[in-house]
Amino acid sequence: EVQLVESGGALVQPGGSLRLSCAASGFTFNKYWMTWVRQAPGKGLEWVATIKEEGSEKYYVDSVKGRFTASRDNAKNSLFLEMNSLRGDDTAVYYCARGMRYPDYWGQGTLVTVSS
Amino acid sequence: SYELTQPPSVSVSPGQTARITCSGDALPKKYAYWYQQKSGQAPVLVIYEDSKRPSGIPERVSGSSSGTMATLTISGAQVEDEADYYCYSSDSGINGVFGGGTKLTVL
Fold first, then answer.
1. Do B94 and A50 touch (CB under 8 A)?
2. With contact defined as beta carbons under 8 Å apart, do B87 and B5 qualify?
């Protein structure tokens, strides 16, 4: 059974940093692109970033370029999202999901709140 | 930036057919995907590659695409189909994009 479990969400001040993690199991992690998607409170889904199987290619939505970095540790079946210079509009539930062309399996999400 | 446009809401009575549309300029060349999200839960894939159903998704859920519009159809909608539905595709490259979401009400 495919499982994705996010962690690391927290309350952080504007301008701060946070690192999200996603633990994957139930599939061969190093054979899949992985994706981060976020959802602000009461709002729709927003694609954030996608990273290739070995991490050599990464793609980001314009609003996070230069501030967020996706990475992965295939030896530990883990996906990460390093978030810097956080702003209020980064407040959201962050989901990790499997896949590049489309996310097929999703985790339950972790909440990031950016507020002073 | 590339956008996918959905109606904010669709309402049907139980047993009726619900149709949710998604329009985007790249859809003639790109597949559409559909996700169902119930309150407080993670999204679930219900249609992939325009019209294919993942295992476990009931046959009353179907998808189609023509030109710049993709359509999610729920035949004989049931109360448990009430949810937010999002279409998803990609721009000319790798970047993903979601539609704004459609709230389906069945009552």
1. yes
2. no
